[in-house]
Specification:
- The protein has 3 domains: 1-219, no CATH class; 233-424, no CATH class; 439-584, no CATH class.
- It is globular and about 95 Å long.
- It has a 5-stranded mixed β-sheet, with helices on both faces. A two-stranded antiparallel ribbon has the order 5-6. A two-stranded antiparallel sheet has the order 7-8.
- The protein is α+β, with helices and mostly antiparallel strands and 590 residues long.
- It is 51% helix and 8% strand.
- A hairpin with a 5-residue loop joins β5 (103-104) and β6.
């Protein structure tokens, strides 16, 4: 048998809570949103009370025995020897209920997990107002494990309260203290943990997790790094989570905040920007080991090396979460024409463009105007071509490798310009892109780029004097969306013509942006009927220009459907190219 990567350790609930309180076991997520609903917490205690198993815990030795530092749940005495890989929610529930420690809910509001118990029925429930008033219920079982708990006095008071409301039989008077004693004894409930050796790699830990975890969730490298931040730089992880939380809602007091209508980056996404800026790496595979202070050659750990790497991460994160940087970068996205969140089909492209923007600003000191224009085109190109889909870390690592050995701002510009030119060739515009537009996907990068190009070109909405850019303003609020995607050849009309496959009906080339009331007016009428009617609103020159922007060939509504789709895809690709070239000239919507 090969050497075991783990050992089995038996605990009691009380010992686990003690080790968490002392910091022997790291439970950082007590200060993070608790994902279980309270009914699962109730069921957890019910299972323990009935003597059922609640599953095996999985811990990982961190490789730093004996270090002392204040971190974590409260004021702990040392760096945790064990990190929790599986069992986080179970231990959070136990700790929060039995220690009376508040948790954060999904709305980041602090609240207590309060579980009620009925000793007469030996039944658990989530505490509510009715149970708080009922003399039969102990409204908060957490009281039973507090250091000043007097069990005799508690049972006496409970029985006195109950007898004032009802007559109790001798059997009930006997059952109540027994049930309460059984509940109190949950502090001795046995649990088993598998402790994985510090020598195990992240890949091995992840594989172990998958093999023993029935939920089927997989761990990724970001999970490991965020856990490591919880141990050695918990404030840094909290900063990422606070940024994400505040990016979702406008501040009540109008203070500066990361809020924006375009993108609310998850902590993992912000971490990727951190890592790219700090270490010029996208693949997180080795970053975890680097941050642990592990020598990749010898496998030895060094606290000094770990602290040095975390210093680099701290420095980078200060740049990443700088609100001025963040909002300056969002201007890049607007300048690229992606003025509405629905146009962003790749958040990864946005994340990695932010990383490159920060590298250009901090490390190459590129002037603001040049940097914004360069990155707007990079984001446009990356989104259009799906550059960071498939194997995003590998692709970004290759992009970061392009910058090795460079130091001057003009070198950065030259290298990225060359890369864009190598991707957006004549064949791409004239052959590849029209073929890629032959899709019915609502999240088509080509369709998003086409709409972004209409913003860049200051194009009007089809059959309207309003501008696409203005009606896509994400700050506008109305019952109906100002713009709607309209089938140029309506769905029911096509079905009457024998076109029944939804993939054919919903082709990207069959959509145009129109004002919502025009969409209602068009309904299911044939294009040869409604188009001439709307054309009469505009003089010939204005109509020709409008059709050019919207990639509609002359007499489009008289074409057979397959010919129309093929010709419009070609024209859409030309409009997208024109939008990109408009960016090259330094123009945009920012």
């Amino acid at each position: 048998m090969s050497d075991l990567l783990f050992k089995k350790v038996d605990y009691t609930a009380g010992k686990l809570l003690e080790d968490i309180a002392l910091g022997e076991i790291g439970l950082p997520d007590i200060q993070r949103p608790f994902v279980w609903d309270t009914a699962r917490v109730r069921d957890l205690f019910d299972s323990m009370y009935r003597g059922y198993p609640i599953g095996t815990l999985l811990f990982w030795e961190n490789g730093y025995p004996g270090e002392h530092r204040t971190i974590g749940v409260n004021t702990k005495q040392k760096i945790p020897r064990l990190l929790i890989v599986d069992g986080q929610q179970r231990l959070t529930a136990l700790y929060a209920v039995m220690k009376g420690v508040p948790i954060l809910d999904k709305n980041f509001q602090q609240r207590r997990l309060r579980i009620a118990f009925n000793p007469l029925e030996e039944k658990f429930e989530v505490t509510n107002t009715a149970l708080e008033r009922s003399p039969e219920w102990i409204a908060d079982i957490g009281l039973l494990w507090q250091t000043d708990f007097d069990q005799y006095a508690f049972v006496s008071e409970y029985l006195d309260r109950l007898t004032r409301q009802q007559d109790l039989s001798a059997e009930a008077r006997k059952r109540v203290p027994q049930a309460i004693q059984r509940l109190v004894n949950l502090i001795h409930y046995p649990l088993t943990a598998l402790e994985i050796s510090a020598q195990a790699t992240e890949e091995q830990v992840s594989e172990i997790f998958v093999r023993i975890n029935s939920r089927g969730r997989t761990l990724n490298q970001a999970d490991f790094i965020l856990t490591l931040m919880s141990v050695f730089w918990d404030e840094g992880r909290k900063e990422l989570e606070t940024f994400y939380r505040e990016a979702k809602h406008p501040p009540a007091d109008n203070r500066p905040s990361p809020y924006n209508p375009y993108f609310q980056p998850q902590p993992e996404q912000l971490l990727r920007v951190d890592v790219a800026l700090a270490f010029r790496r996208a693949r997180l595979e080795h970053v975890y080991s680097i941050l642990r202070g592990k020598d990749l050659q010898t496998g030895a750990f060094s606290a000094e090396q770990r602290d040095a790497q975390f210093a680099l991460l701290r420095e980078a994160q200060a740049e990443v979460l700088n609100l001025q940087h963040w909002h300056d970068f969002l201007k890049v996205i607007r300048q690229a024409g992606y003025v509405h969140p629905s146009l962003i089909t790749s958040q990864t492209a946005l994340v990695y463009t932010y990383a490159l923007w920060l590298i250009g600003k901090r490390d190459f000191r590129l002037d603001q105007h040049t940097l914004r224009n360069l990155m707007a085109r990079w984001f446009f190109m990356s989104s259009l071509t799906g550059r960071y889909t498939g194997s995003p870390e590998t692709r970004m690592d290759q992009d970061l490798a392009l910058l090795r050995g460079l130091s001057r701002p003009e070198e950065l510009v030259r290298v990225l310009e060359q890369e864009m030119a190598a991707v957006l060739t004549r064949d791409y515009w004239e052959v590849t892109l029209p073929n890629e537009l032959a899709t019915a996907s609502a999240q088509s990068p080509g369709q998003a780029a086409f709409f972004a190009s209409l913003c860049l070109l200051d194009a009007p909405v089809l059959y309207s004097s309003m501008k696409v850019r203005d009606l896509l303003d994400p700050t506008a609020r109305a019952y109906k969306s100002a713009l709607e995607r309209h089938h140029l050849f309506p769905r029911k009309y096509l079905k009457r013509q024998g076109v029944s496959d939804r993939r054919d009906i919903n082709q990207v080339a069959n959509y145009a942006l129109v004002e919502w009331h025009d969409n209602i007016g068009i309904g299911d009428r044939p294009p040869a009927e409604y188009a001439p009617e709307y054309e009469r609103r505009f003089p010939p020159e204005q109509l020709r220009e409008m059709y050019r922007y919207h990639a509609l060939p002359e007499g489009w509504y008289a074409m057979d459907y397959p010919t129309f789709l093929e010709e419009r895809r070609r024209l859409m690709a030309a409009v997208i190219r024109e939008g990109f070239e408009r960016l090259r000239g330094g123009h945009g919507t920012g």
